[in-house]
Amino acid sequence: MAVKVVARERLQSGKKDAALEIFREMVELTRKEKGCIAYSLHESAEDPDVIAMIEAWESQEALKAHLESEHFKRLIPQVGALVAEPSRIEVFKELF
Amino acid sequence: MAVKVVARERLQSGKKDAALEIFREMVELTRKEKGCIAYSLHESAEDPDVIAMIEAWESQEALKAHLESEHFKRLIPQVGALVAEPSRIEVFKELF
Question: For residues A30-64, b (16+ Cβ closer than 10 Å) or e, as one string?
Fold first, then answer.
């Protein structure tokens, strides 16, 4: 069964366009990775400055390789400079 | 673009089997609903008593109809009796 990740960030006010530009590159490069089933960016229905990447990976190993990828290590710190509070990242195993 | 829901619950200790039985029926009935793209149950990689339904709907209207369905109104209160803390339900709009 798939490994899912929900990675939620609250952006600093006025930083959304800059964050989306970084995330567009992340999405484009990550979807090409081995074992990536889904990788999409979302905004909260309640607060457009809250965004969430919802991810599905074929295995824990595929997720681990993603976290070690060049684009992850290069782009995620750029997003980190735009957030208003610490990211909330949760990893889930699909049951059924 | 899809509407996503991440609904997270921390179960009371020892109640997981009972909760999974209820969620199996929820999953079976919900996947038959109009506008349901995905509806899967997960457990946290860090704590198996933390579970999360990750959902994808074609529209806000499809999600609204789900929340008004017979099985939602009948089964979710049964899950509510097994949780250790209030549910955390977040609704997201897919951007890209």
Answer: beebebbeebbbbbbbeeebbbbbbbbbeeeebbe
